[in-house]
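Sample entry follows:

_____
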Amino acid sequence: MTKCNVLIVDDEPAARYGMQKALKQGPYTLFEAENGELALQNILEINPEIVICDINMPLVNGMELLKNIQINETIQQKPLVIVVTAYGTERIAVEAMKNGAYDYLTKPYDIEELRLILKKAWEKIKLENENKILKQRLTSSLSTEIIGESDQIKSVLSLVDKVASTDATVLLTGQSGTGKELVARTIHQQSHRRNKPFITMNCAAIPNDLVESELFGHEKGAFTGATVQRQGKFETANGGTLFLDEIADMSLETQAKILRVLEDKTITRLGGKDVIKTDVRLVSATNKNLVKEIESNNFREDLYYRIKVVEIKLPSLQERKSDIPLLVDHFIKMFADKHQKSVRGFKSAAIQSLIRYNWPGNVRQLLHVVEQCIVLSDSDYIKIEHIPNEITDSLETVSAPLLDSSFSFTKAKKEAIQKFESNIIENALQRTNGNITQAATLLKIKRQFLQQKINQLGILADNYR
């Protein structure tokens, strides 16, 4: 942040001019409002970091403006408010600070005192923003890390690495619960926009008659219920990334407006006339087949090609079952501390039940199952009895072979054991990137015995490196 937006609110033009003159050489972009009512509208439009307001004003005085700022839910980033009072009314200033004001000035004020208060306020804002960014980076490693070593996930990560540094639009496809928002956040965090907003919107969760207001914002009185001016997602995401989930659920009319924004890089709020420039990187997601949606006249072909400069298809959990142990370990770290549990891992039978399950809800379902197991567990390790019935009751059972004249119990038993051993060993090699020594340690067997089994079963460790 190199410039600080400062809104000066005073009903006296001379007072506003004096402040403008005193602060024009500083790192500030200065705005004016002649009363509290106009000030509130300006705050919603320009998002100032600092507001300097006189207490005694007509219509809406400084104290009322201060209270409105604190309770107005549409003001997401509250500005620091510095109130200006007349000499001898310091009691009112103290009351203002109790109501959330940052500091106060008494008229007639010293210009150097004004500059010093502004400087300290700006330094406080910058420090808070730096701490916020640092905290986000420190806490994001568990919640936003893409976990997996399967070929499918490596392919996704490779594409993410290639597109993140660009401003290309990205279309994320795949089943629900595969982690499309996580991938979108990762693209944002690895881009040059990482210190700007990442704004999300689920198009399927918002009624059609409100979608455009959410996207483009609206002016006061644009429609019934629009009591104040409001910024849309494109404005709040300016400089950053906008993630539109379930974009296929938008109406064709809204799709046309999205296309125009992408081409012109401008928006107009509902009920407004001003053309507002916007610099947003768009990442979209859908679990639908957009080609079929185009054929059914449910999705615009021109928008499809505009949002799909790069497509990243996320694999289902069924396609990457070798990642389940890694995901489980990751979720244990997330939830053990959260719920103050001492869970350290899953027993082998419990893990195998998870691997054998089909996971229609994908990674999202696995995450909730692991959290449920941790919450209900009373030991350090999750056992098979802790696994929800929806998982264990649906597991495929080993079907009995056809008992005819060619059946051999010894042969069938041998084949079943070989299949079981192959699955376990291949899973261990997958987790250790084909390192036989590490795989033997993981399986708690001697390396020589594992090497012998690998040779007997015809497993190629090199395939996992």
The chain has 19 helices and 14 strands. Residues 26 and 119 are 9 Å apart (CA to CA). The radius of gyration is 30 Å.
